[in-house]
Amino acid sequence: MMVEGEKDTPGVVTGADFLPARADDREPVSGTVVVVGGGNTAMDVARTSWRLGADKVIILYRRTRDEMPADRMEIEDCLDEGIEIMELAAPIGIIAEKGRLKALRCQRMKLGEPDASGRRRPVPLEGSEFDLPCNLAVSAIGQAPVLDGLTEIGGAKLKLTRWDTISIDTATCATNLDGVFAGGDAADDGPTVVIDAIRDGQRAAAAIDAWLRGAETQRKPFTVKKEFWTKPGKAELGEIGESPRHEVHLIDVDERKSSFREVSTGFDFEDNTHECARCLSCGCVRFDDCALRLYAQEYGVDMEHFKGYVRKHRIDDRHPYIIYDPNKCVLCARCIRTCARVLPISAIGLVGRGFRTEMRPAMNDPLVETNCVSCGNCVDSCPTAALTVKYPFPGRSCIETGDVVTNCAFCSLACSIKVRKFGEDRYYIASSGAPGKYLCRYGRFGNELFIKQDRIKAAEIRGGGARAGASLEDACGAVVSGLRSAAEKYGAGKVGVFISPECTNEEMYLAARIAREGLGTNNVASLSILCAGRESGALDESFGFTASTADRSCMADADLFICNNTAMESDHLVLAAEMLQSVRKGAGLIVTNSTLDPADQLLSTIAMDPMRGRAAVLWNGIIRVLMNEGCFDEKLIRSMEGSGEFLSGMDISLEEAEELSGIGRDRMEKAASIIRNAERIVIIHGPDRPQDQASGDMKVFANLVALLRAAGKRADLLLPRLMANSAGLEVTGADPAFTPGRIPAGDSFKGARSHKELRGLLEAGEIKAALIIGEDPMAWGRTGSWFGNVEFMAAMDWTDTETTRFANVVLPGSTFLETNGTRCNFEGRVARYVRAVEPPAGFCSVEILRTLANGFGIKANGDVASGLDSVVAKGLGKLVCHYWNKGEAREGGRGKLVAPGGGIKAGAIDPPLTHSGKYRKEIREVGTDRFRVRQ
């Protein structure tokens, strides 16, 4: 208080002494207590005195209540508790009687001009003195730091403020002396709350680190708030109406008297709901990496120079996955150029002129109603937050994420992705960040499938018609017992293990070992592949292997692409974007599909739509044209291995090809002419796409590649698959025709030796027990009937399906984001996957399969990946470059001619059995603009 007698008059104490003393000893207080000050300490002293029984408590403050530095809530609570606030008065002396405090001599004040703190300075009123009787006076006007011995360093003096605190740069806590930093109560504005000292410590730590490294101190982040331009209105508030704020609930004043109970009881559920509904999510989600903001920060932009009128644009959030905020667009057109590289015609462009120019779809249509394929690559290209993704979970914020780089497993391209996590169930997908690396709609937004589904979090065993939770050990034991019992009762040839072609190589390898070593059966396969009707090793006779003959690098300088049974834009957008660059440079494009996409017709040199299931007939007809025109003369053909079988099977005439395929002879001749004039040809064929699958089509293309190579042309066959790891089934032994390492299956095990035999067993209902991993055959009539006679079924999956509901034992599975392992992409390259998200069950699929394998007596405790790698490398030998490539140089294959296919029966388009297959099907049928994953 700075008055005479303050320190030696009984009954006059400081707030810093009073509060700790009363915390340890709740001695009652009587009479009138006067608290001098206006901060939070003064409020604490006043409210404590009232609780300790004071007859009257008065807060004496030299300014008005509006200038009090205390929290507004503290002031209001004081008034509620009956504490008086005497404004515009200050103590000027102490009146004592018999050596003890009797009253404070006070003086009235008025407010003058503002001082350095921005508050109006209190000015004494002459002749306004008065005495304020009291029994206890508590000084709570702050404390001053003791800097004895700290103000001079090496002869140099620290600069002090007029309050005798250390003067600092508040952004860095640096003093006027190089290498000396200060903060907290001893610096700048003196004693305040603890959080201010913590803030100073954080700023000082960063500044000291920069000073020690000789680096430039990081500047204060550059920020611009919406209210800088104008008060937020309808565009920012949207449908959120104005409503009064819900305050924190407090206990009644009567309950506070003589009690130190917590006054604030918090919010009720309804309060939380109300307040959360008012959230505008107005913080910029790109604050950390917005190029415009970072440049403004780097160059010290002063936004006051740019203040003024600004046009406000309506935010467009009509797209289900992308938000466009034109208010943040700088018209750099990077998104437009990126879109044009991915699509034949960009979905967006610049509309308007001058200051009215905007990035928009044509006619300002909603983006989702254009030819946009929802790949989100425009978002990656945007340097600001004009284009951002909608998260597949509630809320939008810019907080630190944990980033993990792995690969996508929605198809066989295995594109690199970055998983950006706010938490285990709060993450989104971004591209890896490498220049020119794109993602498709599934790779970027497909994680909604995992986040928005109820997960299987624990094992379950069916008993008495109902499923009940069980430990993993008990469930695995029940699986081992159930499968073994069926094998002993009916024979090993009557049980089977079925695994999704989306699983990792390690999971497939363990499934194959469980089937053969644990159960003695050769009935191991993917039900999805069995449904497709393909046989194993379709190209083994032609090339010596059944895989792509090259990697995607062959596309870079190709002068002709032939696409068959693949809707490149919707199935393999990233591969299509690479092809598009060559087509724009002049490469030819021949497309054959029974249903042609607009992009096929727009881009192709010639697009043909043969009747479904007749593509092999069409291409045999085109080969016949090339033979007739001398591109492949008879002498050349007879010099090739397998020519006899080939020629005897090529007895089709052009008239027959025309009639059976539905494509006119003139179009076949045009396609042949384009092929004849090309030198570097890439054939892209979808081997597991059922829509335009034709009997013998893969052998026809193998023959075409062999003939083109013999004619001196460079020709390669790429086999991009819809199912992420269908190429890994044969390599890992999860196929009835091959054991691990793609070694032909012998007679050591009971059961089928081919897809045809295994389909026969299933269709005849001869399978009596099954372990099904990641597939849902019970969802559909045809495949469900295959298991009509099973007496025991175990299913492993990450979410409930018809199959898990039917199963006797359910084991929790994991998604590709939750499992370490490898998959074989369409090029035959081994792609490594990293666990980016923890599986809700606490175990990933490969760990559970290892437990199962151990239950069957199979030694699988070591590194499964290492053991598989050794087995595969040994079994494949020189073919490792085509199936298990880790950087090995490729060989072209032998190129033997085989008897051409040419069946005319269209294959069945069975409903998808895998999760990604179902996801694709729903999106195709419903449309992106209306698609939502059901929770």
Give an account of the 3D structure.
The chain has 935 residues and is α/β, with parallel strands linked by helices. Strand 18 and strand 19 form a beta hairpin. 31% of the residues lie in helices and 18% in strands. The model has no long low-confidence stretch (mean pLDDT 90). Strands 21-20-33-32-31-22-23 form a 7-stranded mixed sheet. It is elongated, with a radius of gyration of 39 Å.
Q: Count the helices. How many?
A: 33
The rounded distance between the terminal residues' Cα atoms is 65 Å
Report strand %.
15-25%
- Secondary-structure-derived class: alpha/beta
Mean pLDDT: 90
User: Strand order across the biggest sheet?
Assistant: 21-20-33-32-31-22-23
Quick overview of this protein structure:
With 935 residues, the chain is α/β, with parallel strands linked by helices. Helix content is 31%, strand content 18%. The chain has a seven-stranded mixed sheet with strand order 21-20-33-32-31-22-23. The chain has a five-stranded parallel sheet with strand order 1-8-2-3-4.
